[in-house]
What we know:
Layout: E1 4-9, E2 12-17, H1 28-43, E3 49-54, E4 58-60, H2 65-68, H3 80-88, E5 94-98, E6 101-103, H4 105-111, E7 115-119, E8 123-125, H5 128-131, H6 139-147, H7 149-158, E9 162-163, H8 164-169, E10 175-177, H9 182-194, H10 198-212, H11 216-233, H12 236-255
Amino acid sequence: MNVLRIERDGELATVVLNRPEALNALSNALCDAIVHAFRELADDGGVRAVILTGEGRAFSAGVDLKELSDPNRKPAEFSPGQMIDAVRNFPGPVIAAVNGFAITGGFELALGCDLILASSEARFADTHARVGILPGWGLSQKLPRLIGIGRAKELSFTGNYLEAEQAAAWGLVNRVTAPDELLPACRALANDMLSCQPDSLRGYKKLIDEGFAMNYGDALRHEAHVSRSSMNEIRSKDVADRRESVQRRGRDQADG
């Protein structure tokens, strides 16, 4: 069975982890497929936004422990870190549609996306400390920055589950929907993003991600430098055209 499915709708692609019988556990084959998919989508100028979700009742239960204990397992083409990098390096927005369990490696995969929308059935857990390993895909650094160091330590030091509504209250997920409304909500949000100027959308994602890795003062200086460079490249007519587009969108939303 194909472990990954890609569905395209214009400039939006939905990447579906397709191992429902294993709760979409991250086997070597699935990790490799994720890398290939996101690299190919990044090279495809026709795809500007991606939704990442799981088939069945889980987003991903994390690393496939059954495969990991098999001495005859086929080696992976890419490392797990390369998998997360492939998701992060997609130039447009990547929305994690967490439909169920997102556990440990699956939690880290969701955190590799730009933002998370969750079904009311979603559950998050970091079980690294329970199984005796330390995270290496970014969880220990990004999670505290999203929800605060105390809350992150509570999750990581206990391995306890975090339910969707609490995850939203803590700022881990942007919103919670009914299960059958999750993908429509993600598509609507992605289409709102796709209505922005393509170059600006890509540039804004890059600017935020670069600043996120800096201290506050350096990030402010970096923003100012990038803004000046960007404005120098935009002709005044372009700015006027874009302003009219924004105003027209505002009128349309008010009328609707």
